[in-house]
Structure formats: structure tokens, C-alpha cells
Amino acid sequence: MQSVMTFISALGKYDFLQSALITAIMVGVMSGMIGSFIILRGMSMMGDAISHAVLPGVAVAYMLGINVMIGASVFGILAAGLIGLVASKSKIKTDTSIGIVFSAFYALGFILISLAESSTNLHHILFGNILAVSDTDMMTTTVVLGLVILFVVFFYKELLITSFDPTFAQTYGFRVQILHYALMLVLTLVTVSALQTVGIILVVAMLITPAATAFLWTDRLGVMLGLAATIGAVASIVGLYFSYTFNWASGPAIVLVAAVLFGISFVISPKQALLPTLFKGKAQLRRRVTA
Amino acid sequence: MLKVQNLTVAYSDTPVFADVAVNFNAGKITGIIGPNGAGKSTLIKAMLGLIKSQTGTVSFNGHALKQFQKQIAYVEQRKDLDLTFPISVFDVVLTGTYGKLGLFRQPSKADRQRCLVALKQVDLVEFANRQIGQLSGGQLQRVFVARAILQDAQLIILDEPFVGIDLQSETAIMAILHQWRDEGKTIIVVHHDLNKVSHYFDDLVILNHGIVDYGPVDDVYTPANIERTFSADLSAVLFAKGGAQ
């Protein structure tokens, strides 16, 4: 309790901690929402791939002095396109195609960053450095959050049907591929935002863990989106608290909290989890014994 | 009338069928039968433009079918769907309005009302709020037929709707198909076996890597055609006195 009070009073005192908290919450919300569609479309691997594939974009952006979002978007979309191209124009399966493309991009990113050798700290890109969030970063994150919310609100119907039943959408003439690439673009923007809080390596955790946790609690898409956003935000707040209090790295702290929330849900959630099933089993057994 | 002309589909140089020409009449329920792997699903997917065809045209009432995409309702095979998806029966049926709504418009109150009516027609109102994975195969099939009702389409294509469903569902679905037929719609049903062929269909297409025969069911569903497409044994069993018919 003491440490919670310390954390709260520190929040009042230090601007950097406020920025960190606000940014972390925004990232938690946006990755929960986009992550929901990623897991429902069975694209967790793709999420992981895109998040790694933006690395050369980040490096090039630093070299040219342009906005990281632009560099990352170019490489994110390029990777998504290449993955699609290899999978559709050859007999190679999508997961293999993902593996080839994203590792190549990731490798290229490493080399470019070592060439750039700027103030960019590779360690921070890989693991995040939420306590060093600048005002510009925070502004960019706010814009991305706005975009994500607009995207989900305006294309809710299309996101739903192409996730659930893409063939059906195709039969009435909807261009499924265009929405796919739009989602990939939004995903790269979310990835770059999440890069500040948890770093490239752990972005995928922010995308899929809160969304998967929400999935365990509901069978309505709208509720799942809200819940995933909330869980993402809660994990970010609690993770940041642990990070500040025990001096843990912020990214791993946030990701671990999200994983613990998933673990708890896995055990007690009504939908499919362990405890209800066990109890149901026992109750049935008891009924059978007494009958 | 749906007119298919010299349609050819090949998967990496192996043709599934070549130069298929066949007509589907309005106001008729047309069945497509053929052995496993004869290209039944491929034919309708190629007609719908879901897979690429090498040659051929598909026209509906004299215009390219592509211009009529919002007039098509396609009821795909249930096994192709993710039944764990967080969506209710009601919301699945409601997606039937999406095609005509287009971008940025949401289903209206009237659409939701139509949705309830459709659910009533297939006798699933009490399941409206269930997650779709909690339904039986037959109930699920009725959900997708209800969605097709909401699409209010002129051309309705069903891929193996009667596989593994209960009698109640089958009867409910047949009632809807008959209603559509009476409204003058074009109905195409891919059928997985030879049971009740003349009971279900008005017209019949027999497919086996190409059209074997097509026309009114009584002219096409003959011992000779079945023997030619399937086997003499099957033909003997089906057309034996007091047999399946």
C-alpha cells in the first residue's frame, strides 16, 4: 500500500512519469483493440512479423531525420505485401512466408541501426523505454490512438465480416484485400507506438495477450474490444507501477502483468476455463453419486 | 436466368473442368450433383468469382454477374467457418444487410426487425442471443439461410446445405427454398449425395469434370446418367423398384 501511495505522489511530482503513464495507457487501449482483430483473424504470427519488420523503417527514419511513423509504415506495409506475394505466388505456406520475410527485415534493421550508430539506442528500440517518452512521442501516440478508434468505429461492420466470414464479404463484392492492408497499416502504426512502451520484441504480447484475455470473458465482439482495451490499459498501469517501484524494465513488467491477467482468466473465466469445468465436472459427479 | 458459357477452371495446369456451358432457370430449384471431386464447389466458386477461371463468362439476365453482386446470396459450407467467433445468432443474420448497406452505414431498426422475422421463419427466435458455436449443425444451417433471406437476393446459391442436419432443419430450409422459387428467384443447390434428388429439385445438373447432362430433373435423373457418372451398382440400387425414390 505504501508503495502505491509513493507511486501516486511521484506521478504528481514528475512530468516524465505522467507522460509515461498516459502513453502506456494509450498504447494499452489501441493494441487491445487492434489485437482483438488480429487474434480473431488468426493472424498472431502476422502481428509478430509486422512488429519486427518495422525495425529497418525505424533505422531509416533516424538516418533521414524523418518521422519514425513514416519509415515504419513503409516497411510494415512492404513486409505485409511481400508476405502476401510469396504466399500467393508460390506453393509456400503463409507461416513459412512470414518467417522468411520478417527475419530478413529484422536482420536488415539490425545492420541499418548499427550503421546509423546515432543516439538511437538499440536496447530501447528492442525493449522500450517508457520513462523517456518525449512530448512529441506523446502527441504522435495520441494521433495514432485517434486513428485506431476512427478506423474501428467507421469500419466496424467490415472488420467484423472480414474477420468472421471473408468469403461471404467477397460474394457481395467487398474488396477484402484492401481492408486487410488497411489493417496492416494501422497495425504498423500501433506497433511503432507500442515500441516506446514495451519495445519491438514484446509488441506482439500487447497485441494478443489482452485480446485473448478478453476473448475468454465474452462472446460479443463489441464487448471484447472494450474489454481488451481496458485490460491493455490496466496491464500498462500496473506494469508501470511495478517498473517504478521495483526498478524493473517497464516493457517486460507490463507484459508480465498482462500474462498474469490472462492466467487468472484462463483459470476462472466462465467461457472455457479450468475451474468452471472442474466444478461442473465435480457437480455432475456428485449428482451422479447421489442419484 | 443465370447463363454460364465456356467456363474453364484449372489448378496449376490440371483442369478441373473445361468449357462448361449450363443455364440455371429463374423460379426453379436446381441441384448440382456429381461424385466427390467432380468440381461442384469449384463450379459455383468460379461462377461467383471467388476463384479465378481461365476462360468463360457468367451472365445473369443478360448482364455480367459481376454487376449483380449485391443480388447474390451465397450460403457456404459450414465447415469453412470459425464457430468460436464472438458473435450471436442475431448478429450473424444481420450481416446479411451489409452488402446492400455499403460503407459507413449501419443496419437500421427496420433491418433489425427484418432480422427477427427471418429468424422466426427458420424457427430460431429463442436462439437469437446465443453464440453461434452453441448451435447444432442443423440450427446453424438455418441461421445462414436466415441470413440469405435478409440479403433479399435474386440468385441464391447453397453449398451442401443438407449435410449432417436434422429433419426439422431440412424441412424448414426446404420451405424457404420453395418460397424463394415461388417468388421467381434462381436457386442453386450443390448436393452431396443422391438422396431425395427428385424430391428436392426441379432441375438438375450432373457434373463430373464437365457437364454430363442438365435439364428438368425427370429428364436428367435417369439410370443411364447415374450409371455413366457414378456406377452401375449405384444406379441399380437407386432405380430398383421401391428403392430410394
From TrEMBL, chain A:
<protein>
    <recommendedName>
        <fullName>Manganese import system permease protein ScaB</fullName>
    </recommendedName>
</protein>
<keyword id="KW-0472">Membrane</keyword>
<dbReference type="InterPro" id="IPR001626">
    <property type="entry name" value="ABC_TroCD"/>
</dbReference>
<comment type="similarity">
    <text>Belongs to the ABC-3 integral membrane protein family.</text>
</comment>
<dbReference type="GO" id="GO:0043190">
    <property type="term" value="C:ATP-binding cassette (ABC) transporter complex"/>
</dbReference>
<keyword id="KW-0813">Transport</keyword>
<feature type="transmembrane region" description="Helical">
    <location>
        <begin position="248"/>
        <end position="268"/>
    </location>
</feature>
<dbReference type="GO" id="GO:0055085">
    <property type="term" value="P:transmembrane transport"/>
</dbReference>
<keyword id="KW-1133">Transmembrane helix</keyword>
<dbReference type="GO" id="GO:0071281">
    <property type="term" value="P:cellular response to iron ion"/>
</dbReference>
<dbReference type="GO" id="GO:0010043">
    <property type="term" value="P:response to zinc ion"/>
</dbReference>
<feature type="transmembrane region" description="Helical">
    <location>
        <begin position="98"/>
        <end position="118"/>
    </location>
</feature>
<dbReference type="InterPro" id="IPR037294">
    <property type="entry name" value="ABC_BtuC-like"/>
</dbReference>
<feature type="transmembrane region" description="Helical">
    <location>
        <begin position="224"/>
        <end position="242"/>
    </location>
</feature>
<feature type="transmembrane region" description="Helical">
    <location>
        <begin position="20"/>
        <end position="40"/>
    </location>
</feature>
<feature type="transmembrane region" description="Helical">
    <location>
        <begin position="138"/>
        <end position="160"/>
    </location>
</feature>
<dbReference type="Pfam" id="PF00950">
    <property type="entry name" value="ABC-3"/>
</dbReference>
<feature type="transmembrane region" description="Helical">
    <location>
        <begin position="60"/>
        <end position="86"/>
    </location>
</feature>
<keyword id="KW-0812">Transmembrane</keyword>
TrEMBL record, chain B:
<dbReference type="GO" id="GO:0005524">
    <property type="term" value="F:ATP binding"/>
</dbReference>
<dbReference type="Pfam" id="PF00005">
    <property type="entry name" value="ABC_tran"/>
</dbReference>
<keyword id="KW-0067">ATP-binding</keyword>
<protein>
    <submittedName>
        <fullName>Manganese abc transporter, atp-binding protein (Mtsc)</fullName>
    </submittedName>
</protein>
<dbReference type="InterPro" id="IPR003439">
    <property type="entry name" value="ABC_transporter-like_ATP-bd"/>
</dbReference>
<dbReference type="InterPro" id="IPR017871">
    <property type="entry name" value="ABC_transporter-like_CS"/>
</dbReference>
<comment type="similarity">
    <text>Belongs to the ABC transporter superfamily.</text>
</comment>
<dbReference type="InterPro" id="IPR050153">
    <property type="entry name" value="Metal_Ion_Import_ABC"/>
</dbReference>
<keyword id="KW-0547">Nucleotide-binding</keyword>
<dbReference type="GO" id="GO:0016887">
    <property type="term" value="F:ATP hydrolysis activity"/>
</dbReference>
<dbReference type="InterPro" id="IPR003593">
    <property type="entry name" value="AAA+_ATPase"/>
</dbReference>
<feature type="domain" description="ABC transporter">
    <location>
        <begin position="2"/>
        <end position="234"/>
    </location>
</feature>
<dbReference type="InterPro" id="IPR027417">
    <property type="entry name" value="P-loop_NTPase"/>
</dbReference>
<keyword id="KW-0813">Transport</keyword>
